[in-house]
Design brief:
mainly alpha; Arc Repressor Mutant, subunit A; three-stranded antiparallel beta sheet; 3 strands
Length: 205
């Protein structure tokens, strides 16, 4: 993931190490925890592979700093990284980072990746609904149930967001209505009915 972020930032412009570290934190740190301790080892690895190169850039002062820039090989590697197919685990971890550089992809590629992400989240939402139904029939506590429902709400919100992005990519189509999580099955007994995770129940307990 760090290599993708480095190549994406260097594709925009050449930077020295300190500036690159700053950009990683300011632009990508909101949705991704950046390990600054691994920045320079990653840069050296990319340099050995010929994906980035160093040069001395003139400064306003007499000092000259080593600056990194992306190579043609790095450009090709970057495009492969943001458009490649991958497993669901990859989707979960790297999609936000890849989205940060979506402007470099062709519209049809963006639509394909957005639709794949949406399908992945729809499967996740359906599985969450099944898990919630099983938990409600068991003896799961109210806080765990509430957390599960929160996760489903968040996933449904992300699906609606993706549908809006897909509509924009397809050219001015009216954004889709927000997706609602599928309703859980009715609890089999009165005890389960009392554990639906509502705020009133939290107060009663």
């Amino acid at each position: 993931m760090l290599e993708l972020a480095i190549l994406g930032l260097l594709k925009e412009r050449a930077m020295h190490g300190y500036e690159l570290r700053k950009q990683l934190g300011q632009r990508l740190g909101f949705f991704w925890t950046v390990s600054f301790g691994s920045l320079y080892p990653a840069l050296k690895k990319l340099e050995r592979r010929g994906l980035v190169e160093k040069f001395l850039a003139p400064e306003e002062t007499s000092r000259r700093k080593q600056v990194y820039r992306i190579t043609e090989g790095g450009e090709r590697e970057f495009m492969e990284l943001i458009s490649e197919g991958a497993s669901s685990a990859w989707e979960e971890e790297k999609f936000p980072l890849r989205l940060a550089f979506f402007a470099y992809l062709k519209p049809e590629t963006r639509i394909r990746l957005l639709e794949r992400r949406k399908a992945y989240l729809e499967d996740k939402l359906a599985e969450g609904s099944r898990s919630l139904n099983r938990a409600r029939r068991g003896r799961t506590d109210v806080y765990t149930l509430s957390l599960m429902r929160h996760g489903m709400d968040t996933t449904a919100h992300d699906i609606a967001w993706l549908e809006e992005l897909i509509a924009i990519e397809r050219g001015g189509i009216e954004p889709a209505q927000p997706v609602r999580p599928p309703p859980p099955e009715a609890p089999p007994d009165a005890h389960a009915a009392d554990t639906d995770g509502t705020p009133s129940e939290l107060q009663q307990r």
